[in-house]
Structures are given as structure tokens and as C-alpha cells.
Design brief:
It comes from Alitibacter langaaensis DSM 22999. This protein has 210 residues and is α+β, with helices and mostly antiparallel strands. The chain is built from seven helices and eight strands. The longest helix has 20 residues.
Length: 210
Amino acid sequence: MTELEQKELMVQLGRSFYERGYTVGGAGNLSVRLDENRILVTPTGSSLGRLKAECLSVLDMEGNVLEGDKPSKESVFHLAMYKANPHCNAIVHLHSTYLTALSSLADLDPENAMKAFTPYYVMRVGKLPVIPYYRPGAPDIARELGQRALMGKAFLLANHGVVVTGSDLLDAADNTEELEETAKLFFILQGQKIRYLTDEEVKDLENRGK
């Protein structure tokens, strides 16, 4: 995919997230690895529903702006994850309704905020570790995500939202959508007796993905 195509896809996906209520106002940010030395990221304060290809920020791996508008202040944690995980090629960070609600619950398992109850959650994401609360833009978020970048595809930021990775932008978007739907089902099922997948069933799904 050419650089222009990546920019157009980012605009398209941002608008789709916005129109479906996955993000509001200027919340959330997207990024994709353009090559070994550059990433494309949404600008600071920009609405994902009103992105313009020519305004998207191109950064080198040290965070220097090579092209476009000033990047999101959270581009720091995007860069930390790209540096730590060579298989991470795109990142979606949203404050989507159900995942943000989940992130605000007390006493979540720090290793996995949602125990698996659908195979699609396992196949798409696997598990959802929780990053402790830090204010948005705090360098601690980048440190935490950089340290854990090789440990999974998605991370729940306590009282904040979610960070989801993928092999490309479409894959990261698909992973995010499956995760948000799983969180929605989690809340719908509250008060009901949930049949969680057994360890053997989870292991079977994980093995099929290898």
C-alpha cells in the first residue's frame, strides 16, 4: 500500500469509527507504520470524523515531525510500542463506550480484564491486560506499553480507554471492533450466569491460530 493509500485509509477508518459512535469530539488517535523509520499518526486535538489526509502527521521513530500537523500528544506511546514490537504495524486508541466503561470498573484482573466467553475474543485479541491509571499524555503510559508491547494485541488503560494493535490498519480496526462488541456483551450479561470458555477450549483456539 502506498503512503497516500495509507493516509486515505486512516481518514476512512477514522470517519467510520466516529459515525458509529466509537469516538466523540477530539478523542482517540490512530497510527500506522509507514516503514522502518516513519509512522503516520493523527494530529493533536483532531476529530477522527473530520481527518484530512494532507494534515496527518508523519514522524520519525524519535518523534520528530517530518510532515503534516502537530501529532497527538499520545503519539509517544505509539512510538514506544512500535520500537518494542517489530510485529506491531498499526495502533488504534479509542475511548469507546463499553471498553471505557470496563476500564472504569474497580478490581479488574490486571492480567486480563475480561475472561473469555466467545471464541472470537480469543482469536482476535486473546486477553486484555490492564495498564494502571495515569493522566492522558503521561510518559508513564508509554513506559508501561513499551514494556508490555510483546505481551498481547490489546491493553486496557484504567479509567481511560483501550489500545489495540494489528498487522495493518484494517486488522487493528477489526480487532478493536471485536473487542468493543465483547465488552458490550459483557455488560449485557451482567446478572446472568455466564458460561466462560474452559482453559482447554481457549488453548485449542490459540493453537489453531498458530
